[in-house]
């Protein structure tokens, strides 16, 4: 497998330079082979504790009301800085004596989106993912202890789901998936989604972490990618009718849609862009404060004025009353002149009786990335 990966990575070098249809086809075949390979998965994610497909008898008739914290953060190719107080993000909206029952944390760009990583990191970067998990658990301890239910990675995308210690015996029907969107051509996997679903005490949940195409001019590509993600995640067939093969930890059976879950959550870097150019802004971007620019810019973001992508038509979002989450100069509260500020990082949800308790960005976590992390607390 190592020799195969090295060969595929060499092919990527030529693809990235725009050479030959044959090289692009070979790269696609290499990615398909890796996607079917068991060796790119993390064996520790598939312990016997998660093998049950039905609830315990005591849980089946009495679903419990659980609190769920969803978080999303584009990390710009690195782990969170040691200067960050992660508890601000992980416990957002909770009282001083409270913590979420379920944590679903989605990262984008945990590694740089270098073309070679489309093969060498096809299943994620295990070392960085483990380090991130350790930092999360450390930030919550010793008061709160959690057990990881499942995680899944794809190049820079990573989704990790945890439950409070004591809930793990009640977890069942665990599944995961990844969707490599076709909008990135031969570098499929650079954008797309990773997803996890599971049930706890009679309630089922689905979490999808997305990273959509970037660029002012790529609105149609973002819509196409989101449509593919929502149509293929956890399903046995792709949108063209082709089979999506099963593999270790990925059932890919068309037996349940997102709408069938007690709660479904789509979070991540949607790369929504404002319909305005830097020259139309009332001041140079770098001179705008996050608070001052928000009222001016909101009118230019279709996603904030009711024009929700059709793929999210049945999902809700909390009020976006926080400043733009992108693009900042790292370590500061100043916007980068290279981009028009935008609300790229979002969380959407649906579910019978699912209530949003808190939704916000975290400006204090400024030392790691040009994005601000976002969290949503639900019950």
UniProtKB/TrEMBL annotation:
Residues 64-379 form the Inositol polyphosphate-related phosphatase domain. One of its GO terms (biological process) is phosphatidylinositol dephosphorylation. It comes from the Eukaryota. InterPro entries: Endo/exonu/phosph_ase_sf, IP5, IPPc. GO terms for molecular function: phosphatidylinositol-4,5-bisphosphate 5-phosphatase activity. This is Inositol polyphosphate-related phosphatase domain-containing protein. It comes from Pyrodinium bahamense. The lineage of its organism: Eukaryota, Sar, Alveolata, Dinophyceae, Gonyaulacales.
């Amino acid at each position: 497998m190592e020799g195969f990966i090295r060969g595929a990575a060499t092919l990527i070098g030529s693809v990235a330079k725009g050479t030959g249809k044959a090289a692009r086809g070979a790269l696609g075949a290499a990615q398909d082979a890796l996607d079917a390979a068991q060796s790119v998965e993390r064996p520790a994610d598939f312990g016997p504790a998660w093998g049950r497909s039905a609830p315990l008898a005591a849980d089946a008739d009495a679903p419990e009301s659980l609190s769920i914290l969803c978080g999303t953060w584009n990390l710009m190719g690195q782990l969170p800085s040691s200067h960050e107080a992660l508890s601000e993000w992980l416990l957002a909206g909770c009282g001083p004596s409270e913590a979420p029952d379920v944590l679903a944390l989605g990262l984008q760009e945990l590694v740089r989106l270098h073309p070679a990583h489309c093969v060498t990191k096809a299943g994620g970067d295990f070392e960085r993912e483990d380090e991130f998990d350790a930092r999360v658990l450390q930030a919550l301890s010793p008061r709160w202890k959690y057990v990881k239910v499942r995680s899944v990675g794809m190049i820079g995308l990573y989704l990790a789901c945890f439950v409070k210690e004591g809930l793990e015996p009640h977890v069942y029907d665990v599944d995961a998936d990844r969707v490599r969107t076709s909008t990135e051509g031969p570098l499929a996997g650079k954008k797309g989604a990773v997803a996890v679903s599971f049930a706890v005490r009679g309630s089922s949940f689905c979490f999808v972490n997305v990273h959509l195409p970037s660029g002012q001019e790529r609105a149609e590509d973002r819509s196409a990618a989101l449509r593919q993600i929502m149509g293929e995640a956890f399903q046995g067939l792709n949108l063209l009718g082709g089979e999506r093969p099963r593999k270790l930890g990925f059932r890919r059976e068309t037996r349940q849609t997102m709408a069938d879950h007690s709660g479904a959550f789509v979070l991540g870097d949607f790369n929504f862009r404002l319909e305005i150019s830097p020259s139309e802004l009332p001041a140079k971007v770098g001179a705008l404060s996050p608070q001052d620019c928000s009222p001016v810019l909101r009118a230019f973001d279709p996603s904030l004025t009711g024009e929700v992508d059709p793929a999210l038509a049945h999902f809700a979002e909390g009020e976006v009353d926080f400043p733009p989450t992108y693009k900042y100069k790292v370590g500061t509260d100043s916007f980068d002149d290279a981009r028009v500020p935008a609300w790229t990082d979002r969380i959407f949800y649906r579910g019978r009786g699912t209530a949003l308790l808190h939704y916000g960005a975290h400006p204090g976590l400024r030392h790691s990335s040009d994005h601000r992390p976002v969290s949503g607390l639900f019950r």
